[in-house]
Structure prediction request, 442 residues.
Amino acid sequence: MSNRLNSTPNDLRAFWMPFTANRQFKQEPRLFVGAKDMHYTTHDGRQVLDATAGLWCVNAGHCRPKITEAIREQAGELDYAPAFQLGHPKAFELANRLVDLAPDGMNHVLYTNSGSESVETALKVALAYHRVKGNGSRFRLIGRERGYHGVNFGGISVGGIVSNRKMFGTLLTGVDHMPHTHLPAQNAFTRGEPEHGGDLATELERIVTLHDASTVAAVIVEPVAGSTGVLIPPKGYLQKLRDICTKHGILLIFDEVITGFGRIGAPFAAQYFDVKPDIMVTAKGLTNGVIPMGAVFVTSEIHDAFMSGPEHMIEFFHGYTYSGNPIAAAAALATLDTYKEEGLLTRAGEMASYWEDALHSLKDLPNVIDIRNIGLIGAIELDPIAGEPTKRAFSAFLKAYDDGLLIRTTGDIIAMSPPLIVEKHHIDEIFGKLREILKSNI
Ligand SMILES: Cc1ncc(COP(=O)(O)O)c(C=O)c1O
Prediction:
């Protein structure tokens, strides 16, 4: 422990931190120097209970020996193999394991290094697919208000979070957005899927009519929107989107960067909701968050459409230096083993009702204006302080950190998504601490 504490840096200026209030942070740094299972260790030697699985990614809990060991071994055996025109066995083994977990028919995988890159890859596959099929006029992409699809240009173009978009010029052209599905007046304090709002899917029909289906390539949504503050899809909504896409020959992309790998009680949300997309975007839980890696799943129909032309020619001009990196692939294989051995890909379903009851027990606390949940995801929406949006939730976050609890906030919403190894006593501790925080004057 003392070595770790001694490694605390004494100058924090050079690192421009991502999605962080840098000046606030550097006055009052919050550093993690260790982690094990459900807990982080802070630079000042305290234990912090992780109610967010890092950033929605450490699904099997921290420093799991099998994953750590696989990384060590792989680093000593084959550190890097060129990703283009060459390969290594584990990238293929992993792809086979992944398609076995995925919804039927999603038989091929492209690798990336993050959720943002997975999104860009999916959008490019969709556009190129229509082109190789002779439908090059299908160039439009449709996202949704309040959608989060990472931070690259495609992702922020189809995304719908204003602060992530407004600084960055014209973004991609040919993009439209469906309305979000957040209807607090009708759905506040719903447990699971809300009753109201399923018909908002018909807005897609209106947008398609406006532009004509022959110009629309793909629709992208998060099955459960996470980063925007946890928006659970209303009953029937996703199926309606599927039906409209099918009717018009539009590809449906599910961004499962958060929902993938067991977050809501099935390997993927597509299986939980029984709605099959054409393309599925994943990252985060693929390697338990330990090594950057993403995977984009596509149907055989999409993949096979590219497999024409001379055999010595590259079929799809896209990829990354680190696509399928050996160490990432080893980490992902060990992660899948851990999920399997411990039944973690369905565990959220087993814990969901305990989680839901504990979460909703905070309903009557001051400033709580909505509570939402599904699987092992929960959100508490707070009434913003007049004239100071986000401050109330950020205060709760800071207080929680001081009290040994890691939560996440977006706007005035507290979002939680613990590692899937969470036990009932952890859930009691999470909501016990939160109760005290919300009762105090934040
Ligand atoms: C739904 C969704 N898509 C994409 C991303 C971007 O992933 P990354 O931060 O790995 O680029 C995220 C990250 O939270 C996400 O929640």
